[in-house]
Write a structure and sequence with these properties.
The protein is of the alpha/beta class. The chain has a domain of about 160 residues: TIM Barrel, CATH 3.20.20.70. It contains ten helices and eight strands. Strand 1, helix 1 and strand 2 form a beta-alpha-beta unit. It is globular. The structure holds 2-phosphoglycolic acid (PGA). The site of 2-phosphoglycolic acid has 13 residues, from strand 8.
Length: about 250
């Protein structure tokens, strides 16, 4: 079985205004021939503009979060279908900033994944342990527990990826060692195979947390690392392109 095609996804978080469309255009212009699929996930309000600017290029557009219901009285929220309608083809779900800041549970994330699939979005489901959990030797149990709880059975046969993002590595400049990353990615793979059988082998497992041009090659070539979810370094086309070229 061939390895899944790598995915490099940029998570702009709550950064970017209309002028940032130019940064996305620069990524598309500089990408050349890449083995990876590349996506930029801007704030929801920029999805339509990015999708228009990137139409016909190799760069996909994704959302960062959406509601678990398809429509209704949820002031301030956006639905998966709205993101798809605006031009998104993927959605980041269960990011630790949502789990911690908005108390999203595994069950919430699982319901959001269901909504993504109904809207035709490809989910990128994030998991990751806190520093306290790692220090207590609980990293593998926490992460595999999140995988089991956040991925609904209806993902079987669908395109999706899992992003391992240790909470303590996000935006801190700290990264786990390569053997630490590989240990967690292998545990995620084993869990996916347990849950989905043969199909569990084809979902890329991304690493996220302080990926930058200087560490991208080592991380991306580690065992079972099928791409990266990139925050801060995705905001500048030059840095994001350097990471894409490290695949
Ligand atoms: P970072 O963020 O690359 O800025 O650490 C990664 C993420 O939170 O997805």
């Amino acid at each position: 079985m061939t390895a899944p095609q790598p995915l490099i996804a940029g998570n702009w978080k709550m950064n970017g205004l209309g002028a940032s469309v130019e940064e996305a255009r620069a990524v598309a212009a500089g990408i050349g021939e890449s083995r990876a699929r590349v996506a930029i996930c801007p704030p929801a309000i920029l999805i339509h503009r990015l999708a228009q600017a990137l139409a016909g290029t190799a760069v996909l557009v994704g959302g960062q979060d959406h509601h678990w219901d398809d429509a209704g009285a949820f002031t301030g929220d956006v639905s998966a279908e709205m993101l798809a309608d605006a031009g998104a083809s993927l959605a980041i779900l269960g990011h630790s900033e949502r789990r911690a800041g908005y108390r999203e549970t595994d069950a919430d994330v699982s319901a959001k994944v269901g909504a993504a699939l109904r809207a035709g979005l490809e989910p990128i489901v994030c998991v990751g342990e806190t520093l306290e959990q790692r220090k207590a030797g609980e990293a593998l149990a926490v992460v595999t527990g999140q995988v089991r709880g956040s991925l609904p059975a209806d993902l079987a046969g669908k395109a999706f990826s899992v992003a391992y993002e240790p909470v303590w590595a996000i935006g801190t400049g700290l990264t786990p060692t390569t053997p630490e990353i590989e240990e967690v990615h292998r545990a995620i793979r084993a869990t996916l195979v347990e849950m989905f059988g043969e199909a569990g082998k084809s979902a890329p497992i991304l690493y996220g947390g302080s990926v930058k041009p200087s560490n991208a090659a080592e991380i991306l070539h580690a065992d079972e690392v099928g791409g990266a979810l990139v925050g801060g370094a995705s905001l500048k086309a030059e840095d994001f392109l350097a990471i894409i070229r490290a695949v």
